[in-house]
Specification:
This protein is of the alpha/beta class. It folds into two domains: 14-258, Type I PLP-dependent aspartate aminotransferase-like (Major domain) (Aspartate Aminotransferase, domain 2, 3-Layer(aba) Sandwich), CATH 3.40.640; 263-373, Aspartate Aminotransferase, domain 1 (Alpha-Beta Complex). It is 40% helix and 14% strand. A seven-stranded mixed β-sheet has the order 2-8-7-6-5-3-4, with helices on both faces. A three-stranded antiparallel β-sheet has the order 9-10-12. Bound molecules: pyridoxal-5'-phosphate. Residues 68-70, 73, 98, 100, 146, 150, 177, 179-180, 200, 202, 211 line the site of pyridoxal-5'-phosphate. Pyridoxal-5'-phosphate binds at residues 68-70, 73, 98, 100, 146, 150, 177, 179-180, 200, 202, 211.
């Protein structure tokens, strides 16, 4: 199998699974229990939290485990709006966010909030800090802008947005969905100037079902996501997912070790793929694509879903954008305002530590075959 869909999810290395297995079967204590196995687990959860917090570049007290990136996004949006409900009932986000953010914003709209969806620049997918800041008003409670776009690989100017907000509307809180940015592009919550940062384990070799939300000091008395037994400093109750948390921390450690040894691996693979695929007939590069692990292309005229199905049947896993619904381009691709033929042909390749140039060669050969043997769109 050739797996080129690391932005969708990643394989869990053996060492991560082994760590999780030991926690599930031998060190299974509940961190709230008062006997040694529980007390030990409580300490251990804090040690794992410290590993993830250090990799993110924040204090352990600022990092809350969640069940996934989607949960972190939903929590950040509701908590940001709650804290600033007296500032106003306006949210600024972008039209290219993951549905975890978009649907949370739509839910706020149902509760009477107004949301401005900033459109990206046509074709490139870029979003400037000015475009976001222009949408900010005195009653803007929250700005939510992703760090790395999951379909295009565009990196958005969060630091500039934060600086602009501080000058224009210092009370407005800033959330960034960094699910595709964590351990891919260098940043810390402080360097971004964000009040909320969402991350998720399964994009970096951790298990599915665990993520984290950074909540910064400006968020006084954050609104609890799950009231209950008081876990996660009383903000997100529910018995800690110890095995998942263990796997998250182990994945972070492994990824750090990999990055230390191979700091440019992803960029090298992306650049190799970009060059190789650009040589194929009718292939066009899509989006600005600064993130090291995501490459978006179109084989103009050849429907993306057919490509994904054809390559999939040969064991080559790529994606047609995260949300290619019933043959229609995803909301991200649609926002680029590409010609119809191009928009219907966009595919995404995404890479991880395991990806080799041989994987790219195999994919390029399969794409060339697809081009030569399948019918283009009418
Ligand atoms: N945000 C972005 C940018 C993503 O790419 C994803 C997952 O694809 C999510 C949020 C949701 O993360 P999770 O799958 O952990 O809920």
């Amino acid at each position: 199998m050739v797996y080129l869909d690391h932005a969708a999810t990643t394989p869990v290395p053996r060492a991560v699974a082994d760590e999780m297995y030991a926690v599930l079967t031998e060190r299974f204590g509940n961190p709230s229990s008062q006997y040694p196995m529980g007390l030990e687990m409580k300490k251990q959860v804090e040690a794992w939290r410290a590993i993830v917090a250090k990799a993110l570049g924040c204090q352990t007290g600022e990092l809350y485990f969640t069940s996934c990136g989607t949960e972190g996004d939903a929590w950040a949006i509701t908590a940001g709006c709650w804290q600033n409900r007296r500032v106003g009932k306006h949210i600024v986000t972008t039209a290219v966010e993951h549905s975890a953010v978009l649907e949370s914003c739509r839910w706020m709209e149902k509760q009477g909030w107004e949301v401005t969806y900033v459109a990206p620049e046509p074709a490139t997918g870029r979003i400037s800090a000015e475009a976001v800041l222009d949408a900010v008003r005195p009653d803007t409670a929250l700005v939510s802008c992703m760090l790395v776009n999951n379909e295009l690989g565009c990196v958005y100017p969060i630091t500039e947005i934060a600086k602009g907000l501080a000058a224009k509307n210092p009370q407005t809180l800033l959330h960034t969905d960094a699910v595709q940015g964590f351990m891919k592009v260098p940043f810390t919550p402080k360097s971004l100037g964000a009040d909320f940062v969402t991350i998720s384990a399964h994009k970096i070799g951790g298990p599915k079902g665990i993520g984290a939300l950074y909540i910064g000091q400006r968020v006084r008395n954050p609104r609890p996501l799950l009231p209950g037994g008081g876990q996660e400093s009383g903000l997100r109750s529910g018995t800690e997912a110890t095995a998942q948390i263990a796997g998250f921390a182990k994945a972070v450690e492994l990824r750090q070790a990999f990055l230390k040894e191979h700091p440019h691996h992803l960029e090298e693979i992306r650049d190799y793929a970009r060059e190789k695929l650009a040589q194929l007939p009718d292939v066009q590069l899509i989006g600005q694509g600064d993130a090291p692990h995501i490459l978006s292309i179109a084989m103009v005229g050849w429907p993306s879903q057919n490509i994904v199905n054809d390559l999939g049947s040969q064991g080559i896993c790529i994606s047609a954008g995260s949300a290619c619904h019933k043959g229609k381009p995803s909301h991200v691709v649609a926002s680029l305002k590409l010609p119809k033929k191009t928009a219907g042909s966009v595919i995404r390749l995404s890479f991880g530590p395991e990806t080799t140039t041989a994987d790219i060669d195999a994919c390029a050969a399969a794409l060339a075959r697809h081009h030569d043997t399948r019918m283009p769109m009418l």
